[in-house]
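Hi team,

Below is the intake form for Enoyl-CoA hydratase from Alkalicoccobacillus porphyridii. Please confirm the fields before the structure is written into the shared record.

FORM ID: S-0412
PROTEIN: Enoyl-CoA hydratase
ORGANISM: Alkalicoccobacillus porphyridii
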Amino acid sequence: MSSPILIQKQGYIAELIFNRPEKRNALNLETFTELKKQIGQLEADADIKVIVLRGVDDRAFAAGADISEFIESRTGRESAEHYNQLAESAIEALYRCKKPTIAVIQGFAIGGGLNVALSCDFRFSTENGVFGITPAKLGIVYDLASTKRLVDIVGPSTAKEILYTGTFLSSDEALAKGLINRVYAASELEGAVIEFADVLISRSQTSIQGSKQIIQAILDGSDTDTNETKELVSASFDSADFKEGVRAFLDKRKPTFH
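The structure came back. Fields below:
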């Protein structure tokens, strides 16, 4: 039986590939378990600077939760709470990953699949992207953590529209609502992702990872410095990246960060 997630590494980039093509990469408990494990391993891998998430083919990024599992895994309050806790722990691991993450979307990014994409730092889509969150069509209430991520990205009014209606959005509509960052023709997507990832790779990882953690602290409700955010700033001045950045500026050359 093939793994629901594949990992491919090329240089400083790791691709995390959802691999259930027969289900349009619908997310099941096995997928969530593997997602959490792989994110932990990639975050710990010093050779990886950028993580790209994608579907195994151009039909879907991830077409929501695997509803065929609900008969066994979400039949009532107790089983649903277990399922939701496991799924949220995986998505939270992705959201809290210190390394920059890019969701590359072709085809469907629905429900839990869109939630995974919203947990990434950036979302790039082809013109055939389809987006939606459909609890109103299933009779369930979207959980707070997932709703907050949606509200943080598109604002409360648009989040209400998406959740109340369950309407599918095209890539252009998703872009207009701020749900995704960029839209490309299918033939241009791969090159655009690599080009953007290469920019991130060339920059200071101390700066990128520190900025990500501070932005997340703000989204978590912080409006004043904590000991952790102060330490991120102070420690950066002791870093090799800071020394290289200053030397490169004075030498009038591009910095080479490691």
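SUMMARY LINE: The chain has two domains: 5-200, 204-251.

Thanks, M.
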